[in-house]
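request received
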Amino acid sequence: MPLTPDQQADIDTLRSTPAQTLRAVSPGMEAHLYTAHPVLDHGFVRVIDYMGDDAAICQAARVSYGKGTKSVSNDEGLIRYLMRHWHSTPFEMCEIKLHVKLPVFVARQWIRHRTANVNEYSARYSILDREFYIPAPDALAAQSTTNNQGRGEALSGDEAERVLRILRDDAMRCYDHYEAMISDEGQQGLARELARMNLPANIYTQWYWKVDLHNLLHFLRLRADAHAQYEIRVYAEAICAIVADWVPAAYSAFEDYRMGGATLSSTALECVRRMLKGEEVTQENSGMSKGEWREFQGVIG
Amino acid sequence: MPLTPDQQADIDTLRSTPAQTLRAVSPGMEAHLYTAHPVLDHGFVRVIDYMGDDAAICQAARVSYGKGTKSVSNDEGLIRYLMRHWHSTPFEMCEIKLHVKLPVFVARQWIRHRTANVNEYSARYSILDREFYIPAPDALAAQSTTNNQGRGEALSGDEAERVLRILRDDAMRCYDHYEAMISDEGQQGLARELARMNLPANIYTQWYWKVDLHNLLHFLRLRADAHAQYEIRVYAEAICAIVADWVPAAYSAFEDYRMGGATLSSTALECVRRMLKGEEVTQENSGMSKGEWREFQGVIG
Amino acid sequence: MPLTPDQQADIDTLRSTPAQTLRAVSPGMEAHLYTAHPVLDHGFVRVIDYMGDDAAICQAARVSYGKGTKSVSNDEGLIRYLMRHWHSTPFEMCEIKLHVKLPVFVARQWIRHRTANVNEYSARYSILDREFYIPAPDALAAQSTTNNQGRGEALSGDEAERVLRILRDDAMRCYDHYEAMISDEGQQGLARELARMNLPANIYTQWYWKVDLHNLLHFLRLRADAHAQYEIRVYAEAICAIVADWVPAAYSAFEDYRMGGATLSSTALECVRRMLKGEEVTQENSGMSKGEWREFQGVIG
Amino acid sequence: MPLTPDQQADIDTLRSTPAQTLRAVSPGMEAHLYTAHPVLDHGFVRVIDYMGDDAAICQAARVSYGKGTKSVSNDEGLIRYLMRHWHSTPFEMCEIKLHVKLPVFVARQWIRHRTANVNEYSARYSILDREFYIPAPDALAAQSTTNNQGRGEALSGDEAERVLRILRDDAMRCYDHYEAMISDEGQQGLARELARMNLPANIYTQWYWKVDLHNLLHFLRLRADAHAQYEIRVYAEAICAIVADWVPAAYSAFEDYRMGGATLSSTALECVRRMLKGEEVTQENSGMSKGEWREFQGVIG
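response:
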């Protein structure tokens, strides 16, 4: 259970205190505000604030393109046009602020997306809680034998049990020692900023993360992708569900043009053209390497 | 008059249609929403949307610093502490979206602040309006004789009249020719993206500009400064008045620590220490150049 | 002629004074250093400095992926792999600094690429030169009748002549008045920061522009594209030629995967799969709008 | 010893293979290239590449300010002027690329500086080495009793010994288990991307980090400061020594105006003015809080 009763009470209070505003309001997003969506064993994602909606994207586009855009029959068509032609600035006009609780090794991947604002819980200043990510048995995957950066099948029961025992025991022992080192009972007590170095990377941290919609979609494209590590992908998927309710037209265009789309190289396009003319194209006469050809086969089915 | 009746009617409609939200609401900002604050002869600044308030800054800071921050007696004290110690990330948690109408030469200075999102009216796509900035007579300043990048006194009446006539005539003639070149009556009509090159830099453009509070305050520190060009300073001042209503505690700390503050060099601090001990410090024995000494005198009065 | 004899002499001196370095050196780039490549009638692009080469991209990738990358047979294969999978950070490890002279209306488009460092000639501080972009007759295009943001055919001889006369006359007259207003002979002389507002957008400015290779390639993809305005496209093309000499493997991968490639939506990919199975796909049964279908036809030939 | 014999041999080869270049060369920096400067027990900082020197800063400034800047007698004076007036763009024209080996908890602080390019060793892809930061006894500090985010005195011998034993034992045990989990001998072997979660935050990682001089100086101001955590400060200090050799004039101005300088608030400046007039100013009549007054006393000595 990721939330304490106090935290849940805070959320209930915030959700029961509406106020009036003249700003654009997204009904789908209002339904999400403050509520914690559980992710992994102790993590969550929740929306703290947002700015804009589908209409705000169109409004910004219309500032740029003036009266011409009025000819596009509706907002959905305009949004699809913008997404298709990589006109990214109107999507930057929406903003979201999330509160995320996540394991440190996930946070380390996440933070590499630089165009965002972050306030993270400080382990120099405060004491971390005893909460560690311990994978569910079906998420305990073996190293892929074909891909250095991937997972293979789930571990067998015996091996899984061994691994889970190690992860739990090491986490608990390291945390016990963390507490023992910072304690000031009968000793000086090690500085928090030093003691934290004993904590393994599956400990949970939390942060406020604020990002515009364009950069968020870029993050989701990479992190909700099948090649992303499972432990960050589940966060990305939880955010996808939120974005779909926030800006339904933008999210739908994103699914069609980005998540479900693919970029073909000049060489690959030429192969498609040859194949459509009835020519038999093989890896050997395609101009592609074996790796590229395999990926190309995956795309064109 | 910067707004057409249609635009004013749109604003009136938006201002008369409140909705319910669970988000943080800043009453001072709600009063500003959509209303156009006139700047220069045809320009304006108006708030299209915002996210966060003083409490949101503190909330983000408390995520970082945990329970420790609860000891700071109140939000205002915490905000002053953050501003004093350059803890900028909590201020990044607030966001504002402005609609600005401004002369092109002002837009060219403004856009140099890169950490912002912009959608500008496209003169490739649409036809610019016949609106030019013509300075008020008391803003028609002579070149400074002591500072290459500055203004001196206002021009005398005769010279001012000459200059205003030039600015008006050239603007009108260039715009007449712009219209003539793009016209498709009895001719093909030059492409808009080419015809615009004939328009002088005092023509008005407009954009949506979205920025977080930290970067906005940085912009305001530079552009509301006495050394900034008058034509951008009046925009910065109009925004200052809005920010003061939006996040009163943050703006007050900004005024004390940034706008009214000054950075002293190591050498200058040493001079202050010597002077406070009663030593007579002159430029010659200060370790400063003449320019630095003059600026130092300005700071310590 | 874009360069004065003094400038050319400076360039000759710089090019005749090699020094020793332990850094990575790109022979193709050394051949470009300082030399001005003419663009448009008075503009140029020249390389002032650079950092890194193809090997530096691979070196950075190998830090990330460790020993695994050694299995990729060569640098070129690794670079193609990185480009294909949008692994952008190794490309960020190369940097280029250009000196560009360009019309103001081109500079206004260019500056919208925010992830770069810029030092532009200041018209607050210094006096602009009497240099204006006047298009060559075959670049004088009519407004497109099918695309609000595009050009159609070249103007006829008569109309072209009329337009060129206007552009030349207005530029000269506005510049005459600029000079007259800032003159301090027999008058106070208007401040430079004000007088510049009388200058049309085809006047030339110049800047130093520094950018990493990843962001440069993104700029080139958008601005060397057939839909970009001709006047910025010629700058992008001049830079493409430089990059091809600087990092030949990266540029070749960029041409294949970006410039010559295309992103197909989920819907478009499904159509390709159906067509390859022999199904007859039309706009009506494609799931695409007319605009999308037309673009799709363009891609698959 | 942070380097393997192979790595040292690579460095020796690189340092013994000069090439010719037409670019700006900084002799001070050439002396540093590739050499590893040890930091902490297993870490290092080394320069992989650089762009620009003091003259390049001035050259960029002169593009902006034109002929006016020639009146400043020399480059050093111009650089001091730029630093004093926060003209940051000329400093952005220099760039540095570092190879850094550092503990993960230091990397987590470091990465919060977003305006930089990074390629980090991937623990999804490759196996981390058995190298952990174990503090020297005199760096084992107690938690500060007055500052939540700080250190007090060094731990006593007994307590220090206890802490060091814990840190060493937990690191070794966690690493043993990491190896055991990923081993494929007699079992499937856990995926690397999962096994790494068992490793504590004092394990070493490494990255290439590329940043412009302006943002580097901002980083150094914060991280070479007395309030920064010791373990990141020693990296910042090692980089300071490198920058002082690279761009001596810029570094000297940075020391005077930034590292040794202080920003006084409007209220603090007013107090200085009153004190210089002979008035007795106390915290009570200063208008400052107790915290501010204490900091102010620290600044004016």
